[in-house]
Design brief:
Distance between the termini: 78 Å
Number of strands: 6
Number of helices: 9
Shape: globular
Order of helices and strands: HHHEEHHHHEEEEHH
Strand content: 15-25%
């Protein structure tokens, strides 16, 4: 560059002719950019801090979500949410904590029954027998691990009249289990239930049948099943807890009927499933929702009816 250009520039910038300023420039050449270096340093520092925070948070979430006994709660749950939470701690020793089933009883203890009393032509003793049989139908069809895991319907079928037993067996024997799901609960192969539960909220009522010699037992229930996650990363108990909601009628026929019809038979009902793996459910099986991750999906408009026995069974389910 021509010295004249330098001189010209110096003349245009009087501060360049100041000896003190020139010395300052020589000794501290970066002071002309007082913010540039510190800003870059802060960016680097904050990047490192941010990464550390993210790693710590991620590890914290992992520890919080890791489903093992180290995360066990200090005591049994004392309250229950009205709906399933999207994010909540999972405790495998108390898998129903933070779910609507948290305070339900285990098994048949959660199925209330009225004090037996005579109904129509049926004595109190006969009504008591009918209530007991329907309780056993629920137990062997929905709660017994012999049915749930081994898919063995022998004890369930034994509770029905001869003709009803033959009819239901024909359904349960089909290779396609989609229709079986209207009768019994079958856990999909490859999945296990945790030792706790199933949890039940249910009740039985009785009334006189539509025909002479009939006693109808109505059972309304919702059952919660807790699956072993087998080390899966969980962010909510909804990923391992599944529900069946049902309203069912059973009819006990007296000995005025043909021998093959005397005893208990199904009378119809409604069932819905919630918080479940849909691929398995569409084939007639129960499996936890974590096994089939879904991005989005249809909105379940009336989840509360799943847990509320005072509402009808939802016409939708979480797999529609």
């Amino acid at each position: 560059m021509d010295d004249r250009d330098t001189d010209k520039g110096t003349q245009q910038l009087p501060q360049l002719r100041d000896p003190d300023w020139q010395q300052h420039v020589v000794q501290e050449p970066w002071t002309g950019m007082p913010r540039a270096r510190p800003r870059g340093r802060r960016r680097l520092i904050w990047s490192a801090v941010g990464l550390a925070v993210l790693l710590a948070a991620g590890f914290g979430v992992y520890q919080w979500s890791r489903p093992d006994s180290a995360n066990s709660a200090s005591g049994p749950p004392t309250s229950a949410p009205s709906l399933m939470p999207e994010i909540a701690k999972v405790d495998l020793t108390q898998p129903f904590a933070n779910t609507p089933a948290a305070l339900w009883a285990d098994g048949l203890a959660g199925l209330s029954s009225p004090e037996p009393a005579a109904v129509g032509d049926f004595s109190a003793a006969q009504v008591a027998d009918a209530l007991k049989k329907v309780q056993q139908v629920v137990a062997t069809g929905q709660l017994d691990r012999k049915m749930l895991l081994a898919h063995d319907p022998a004890d369930y079928l034994a509770l029905f009249s001869a003709n009803e037993r033959a009819r239901v067996k024909e359904v349960l024997d089909k290779p396609d289990k989609a229709e079986s799901a209207s009768y019994v609960a079958l856990v999909a192969d490859g999945f296990e239930l945790l030792p706790t539960g199933p949890k039940v909220n249910g009740k039985l009522t009785t009334r006189k049948g539509d025909q002479e010699g009939e006693l109808v037992v109505h059972v309304s229930y919702v059952i919660a099943y807790a699956f072993d996650p087998k080390g899966a990363f969980l962010t909510s108990p909804s990923e391992i807890v599944s529900f069946i909601r049902a309203e069912e009628d059973y009819v006990l026929r007296s000995d005025i009927y043909d021998e093959g019809d005397v005893g208990l038979a199904g009378y119809g009902g409604d069932r819905s499933v919630y918080s479940i793996a849909c691929g398995a459910a569409n084939k007639g099986f129960l499996a936890p929702s974590y096994s089939e991750p879904r991005l989005g999906g249809p909105e379940f408009k009336n989840e509360g009816a799943v847990y509320d026995l005072n509402q009808p069974v939802p016409s939708e389910d979480s797999c529609q």
